[in-house]
């Protein structure tokens, strides 16, 4: 019996849309997003039928001579039909999409309400399968927790990470906060909550991301890399595949045909920021510039930037083989930039205020460079053709170098303002560097999973010989294809010293990153499920044990949690340090503690972790609420010792679980199908950044970052503690 061939996650579009075509489908989608689960065509049909019914007794001559005879029945029909749709959508918004009862129940024993909710969900998916953003306006508003609950939960999370004397003082200032300025700030937060769909996201994006004056490289960038197995494509072919597949993804997102996760239950608001757009630096605050789907992408090779069109002059998308020839011709040119001009992209690694000043001076005030900057900032995405062939997974050193290079680049081959910078090394292995401010890691991971599904499982790869033959560029190809256009920047006074300064600064920051990539193949989540514990809870408890062994203490720990079931939401902080987790770690370090006690405490700690996850998913987080209160206090001129204390605490341990977004890749069929995951820089100078994911049922992938300049941390040492923790925790279930 033949295996079922994987399906494309989005349409294979043949042409780049013209202005009229794009206007047409965007207009349709505008109605779709305001009428679902009723489609625009049936909606118009109902209006037409209702209008015709009201006019059945009128003669055609009367209708032709008196327009108001038609307008009144038409207005009644539109009002009546839309009123029904309006009521239906409000029922769905406030009852169906707002229902979170299933999170509180045993999945094996659902309540009647959950059974009814599940049945309604199946009916909706059957009669009106949603497009990418069909349900976005139906998602409930992010709830505002009570002030007392938030402060109480915060104090619970700080009990084990704060010295006793400081904790007593924290309780005192929290009580004063609750009885004075906290109440006033909560009232302003309540007003924000009532008059906006999400009282957090606008503040979060502005003050956590766009107002930050730090360099985007390492501090805001996140990395994604691909499969464990060897790549069967040459570098040129892999670059062409990226250009082709990601152009299709870009156009599908714009058409709202991109297959979303969650079947309409999750916010897709930030997918529109993945392609075409660019973060624009400002002297005090950046902004994100969205652009319509572009016809070109950027390719950088040996420090030289090229505009590569992904369609011909008539808008017909180039095939992979045609793009292969365009990329091959580009790579074999003798027009490469030299000297400091080959490092011009390092300007984007600078602090944001300085980059804003240099952008104005070197680009906007120069007519030629301003034109080229527009080409860059409106491009779909960037693809870096890297010269290194050292990317691999054969050793820890190679895997760690692979992950680090994907995160940082070399200072000349990433335009960090762009949301997506893909990279392909000389041996054909690839990865991507994402800019975090316009979207979250889960959305970028979704994009990368879809790419891998198409690249490795759907498209057929030619033999090595066929690839090399197709890379040959004939005279006929030069006449019929639109070849890459080099971006020839003009030298401006002062540019050389600034480029060299930025490049050296980035090189120093890159060398300070201590990356250790763990590819743990001893077991995966399959083994953990047989133990009856949460896989994420298992890894988080292992992290807590490893950190305690590494530092001799518990610390405030960040884990990103999802609240995307609420409108325009991004992430919330899940705090893994609990009474149960600390009791478990202490038992593990106690030689006198029996194995059955340790096992019991591990299960309780994982259960507490799962319950915290559910609280986050229901909108009952702590940190985003307190963050908004901090912003309001500063804006309104309130002095708050409690909020000052909260905002001054460092995240010495920052973690993130990169979820499997699509389940489109069978990671259990072969070790070569394991997706290696991602990484990010440690948030604190003396802290660790830990990004992990499960490679199906057979692996745990983890990237640990710290800084060589810190005397407190060591990624290699922490990695050893992590592997020991994995084995010691699973050994509790040996019998």
TrEMBL record:
Membrane topology recorded in Swiss-Prot or TrEMBL: Multi-pass membrane protein
Subcellular location: Membrane
A Pfam match: Carn_acyltransf
Coiled coil: none
InterPro entries per record: Carn_acyl_trans, CAT-like_dom_sf, Cho/carn_acyl_trans, Cho/carn_acyl_trans_2
Matching PROSITE patterns: ACYLTRANSF_C_1
Similarity section: Belongs to the carnitine/choline acetyltransferase family.
Official protein name in the record: Choline/carnitine acyltransferase domain-containing protein
Species the sequence originates in: Caenorhabditis remanei (Caenorhabditis vulgaris)
């Amino acid at each position: 019996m033949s295996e079922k061939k994987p399906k494309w996650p989005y349409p294979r579009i043949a042409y780049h849309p013209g202005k009229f075509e794009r206007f047409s489908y965007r207009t349709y989608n505008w109605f779709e997003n305001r009428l679902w689960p009723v489609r625009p065509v049936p909606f118009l049909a109902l209006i037409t039928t209702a209008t015709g019914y009201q006019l059945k007794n009128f003669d055609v001559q009367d209708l032709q001579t008196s327009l108001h005879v038609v307008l009144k029945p038409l207005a009644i029909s539109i009002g009546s039909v839309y009123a029904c749709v309006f009521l239906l959508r409000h029922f769905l918004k406030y009852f169906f999409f707002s229902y979170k009862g299933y999170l509180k129940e045993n999945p094996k024993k659902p309540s009647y309400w959950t059974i009814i909710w599940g049945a309604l969900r199946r009916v909706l998916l059957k009669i009106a399968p949603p497009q990418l953003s069909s349900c976005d306006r139906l998602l409930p508003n992010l709830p505002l927790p009570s002030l007392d609950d938030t402060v109480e939960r915060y104090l619970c999370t700080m009990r084990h990470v704060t010295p006793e004397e400081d904790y007593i003082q924290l309780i005192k200032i929290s009580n004063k906060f609750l009885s004075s300025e906290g109440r006033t700030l909560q009232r302003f937060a309540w007003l924000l909550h009532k008059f906006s769909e999400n009282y957090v996201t606008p503040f979060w994006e502005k003050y956590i991301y766009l107002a930050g004056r730090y360099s985007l490289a390492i501090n805001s960038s996140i990395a994604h890399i691909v499969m464990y197995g060897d790549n069967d494509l040459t570098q040129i072919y892999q670059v062409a595949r990226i250009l082709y597949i990601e152009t299709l993804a870009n156009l599908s997102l714009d058409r709202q045909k991109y297959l979303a996760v969650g079947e309409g239950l999750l916010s897709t608001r930030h997918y529109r920021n993945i392609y075409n757009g660019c973060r624009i630096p400002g002297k005090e605050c950046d902004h994100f510039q969205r652009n319509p789907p572009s016809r070109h992408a950027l390719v950088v090779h040996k420090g030289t930037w090229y505009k590569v069109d992904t369609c011909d002059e008539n808008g017909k998308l180039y095939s992979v083989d045609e793009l292969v020839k365009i990329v091959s011709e580009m790579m074999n040119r003798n027009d490469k930039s030299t000297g400091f001009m080959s490092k011009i992209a390092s300007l984007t690694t600078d602090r944001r205020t300085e980059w804003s000043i240099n952008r104005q001076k070197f680009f906007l005030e120069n007519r030629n460079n301003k034109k080229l900057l527009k080409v860059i900032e409106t491009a779909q995405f960037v693809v870096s053709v890297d010269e290194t062939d050292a990317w691999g997974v054969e050793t820890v050193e190679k895997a760690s170098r692979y992950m680090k290079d994907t995160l940082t680049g070399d200072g000349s081959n990433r335009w960090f303002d762009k949301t997506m910078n893909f990279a392909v090394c000389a041996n054909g292995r690839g990865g991507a560097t994402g800019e975090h401010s316009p979207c979250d890691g889960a959305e970028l991971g979704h994009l990368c999973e879809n790419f891998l599904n198409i690249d490795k499982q759907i498209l057929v790869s030619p033999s090595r010989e066929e690839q090399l033959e197709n890379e040959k560029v004939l005279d006929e190809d030069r006449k019929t294809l639109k070849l890459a256009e080099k971006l020839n920047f003009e030298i401006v006074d002062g540019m050389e010293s600034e480029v060299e300064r930025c490049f050296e600064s980035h090189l120093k920051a890159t060398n300070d990153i201590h990356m250790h990539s763990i590819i743990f193949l001893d077991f995966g989540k399959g083994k953990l499920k047989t133990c009856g514990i949460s896989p994420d809870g298992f890894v988080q408890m292992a992290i807590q044990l490893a950190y305690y062994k590494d530092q001799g203490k518990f610390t405030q720990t960040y884990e990103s949690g999802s609240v995307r079931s609420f409108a325009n939401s991004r992430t919330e902080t899940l705090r893994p340090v609990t009474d149960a987790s600390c009791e478990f770690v202490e038992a593990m370090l106690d030689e006198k503690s029996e194995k059955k006690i340790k096992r019991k405490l591990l299960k309780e700690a994982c259960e507490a972790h799962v319950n915290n996850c559910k609280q986050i998913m229901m909108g009952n987080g702590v940190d985003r609420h307190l963050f908004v209160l901090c912003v309001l206090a500063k804006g309104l001129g309130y002095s708050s010792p409690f909020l000052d204390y909260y905002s001054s605490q460092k995240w010495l341990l920052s973690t993130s679980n990169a979820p499997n977004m699509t389940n489109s890749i069978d990671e259990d069929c072969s070790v070569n199908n394991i997706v290696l995951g991602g990484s990010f820089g440690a948030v604190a100078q003396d802290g660790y950044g830990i990004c992990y994911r499960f490679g199906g049922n057979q692996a745990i992938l983890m990237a640990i970052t710290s800084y060589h300049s810190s005397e407190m941390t060591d990624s290699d040492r922490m990695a050893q503690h992590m592997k020991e923790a994995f084995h010691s925790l699973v050994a509790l279930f040996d019998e």
